[in-house]
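Supplementary Note 3. Input sequence used for the single-chain structure prediction.
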Amino acid sequence: MENFLQTGKRLRLNYHELPDYMKESAGIFVTLKGNMGELRGCIGIPYPDQSLVEGLLEASVSSMVDPRFLPVTGDELDSLIIELTVLSEPEKVEVGDMNEAKERIVIGQHGLIIRKGLNSGLLLPQVPLEHEMNLKEFLEAVCSKAGLNKGDWKEEDTEVYRFEGKVFRED
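The predicted structure, written as discrete structure tokens, is reproduced below.
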């Protein structure tokens, strides 16, 4: 991140010197929070389409210029809380009603992706815990993030995917 702020370019790594786990394909999100805990950026790659290190470099730079917020500046970099969430591969789950949802989604364990048509939204597993959401509120929040109606998670033409995340946090 510091290198990007100083040079405007992504860091280049010697791929061959990296540990094997950094070369494996994985989804990853980088979440940046200010020193008061306010969100400053959260961007990621949900699917294991590239190596962990490539996804990390891409998501790190992108999170600093998350279009929902003012870009991160060099002055605030040292005070940011950086959180990395390495994602398992998303798996489709059937959740036509709340009973099915309760059987297949565990708050704090699963993150969600909801898709309907061209709309899609994602929330990480830690989000419902941070915002004290129950399962219904979590499903509705993902629908809202996707630009859908809150109850669209129950619709037959809506796809719901769950995934798990391993969180690494640097204060």
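The chain has two domains: 2-87, 91-164. The helical segments are 2-7, 20-23, 52-64, 74-77, 98-104, 127-130, 135-145.
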